[in-house]
Design goal:
about 300 residues, mainly alpha, two-stranded antiparallel sheet, 8 helices
Length: about 300
Amino acid sequence: MMPSTEISGSKDKPWIFLLFKVDQIDRVFSASCKQRAWDHFSKAQRKNIDLWRKQCQEIKASNLEEFLSDRQEDEMEMSDSEEAASAPKRQKTEENLVTQAQMHAQTMQLHNLREDNDQLTCQVDAYKNENEVLKSEHTEAMTYKDNQLRTIQAAMEAMQKQMLEDQQKLKDTLEQMEKMRFSAEVASRIESATSAAIAREESKALAAEEKKSSSVEMAPPEKAEISEREAKLIGLIATFLHVHPFGAGTDYIWSYLQRLMPDIKSREIEELLQRLPSVFVQKFSGVGASIERRWNFTGYESSGAANS
């Protein structure tokens, strides 16, 4: 027949195993209720976990109470002699239970620490990755802004350069227009003076012819016929000599007119100037080999001064 202590020990093993499993389940639920794990569950999942944890704690309390009650009844049924004989074994069993409970608690604590360590490691890695992403985004943003700034600066420099060029072109255009206006005004005045001088010359020729003796048959006076080309030459020469008050030689006048009329010849200029003595007068300066012949414009002078 098996001793009562061995029977009691064999009866306790299922209870211990059951309490151990229930305690493990309760620890899992307790760990899931921590903030770092609790945030990962939805509202419905949190509600179920609370309900399961309460049920587990109730089962654990109920089994523990029943286990203690059975142990108490078994101890009351034991005789004094059996109690004395089984005291060392019971004490040893209780010590084993305490040791197992302590080992289990240490194991669970170590497991929790490992989980905490893994979670902290994951958080550190996440922070590192986030930091690298932020650095990369910041670098890309700064590079993009630098490129934009360089592009804007280049565009502004190009606009400033174009503006300066446009201002210079406008200035040159205004100067050219002013020169053209002045030249046109001078040419208009010279043309008027030339027309007046030609009219005076014709009047003088007609008067001279009328004073001649009617007994002598003379050819009619020549009219100073001026072609369009000659009128243009007169205007250009008068303009040129107007800005040269001390006169200019035939070659100098020819070099100026050749730019405007490439087919002009020096002899043509000389003949035209000699045909209009009331408008153009040739003056001599110097002595011997250094003598110079210069043509002067006298269109603005009176007829008396020109003839003298």
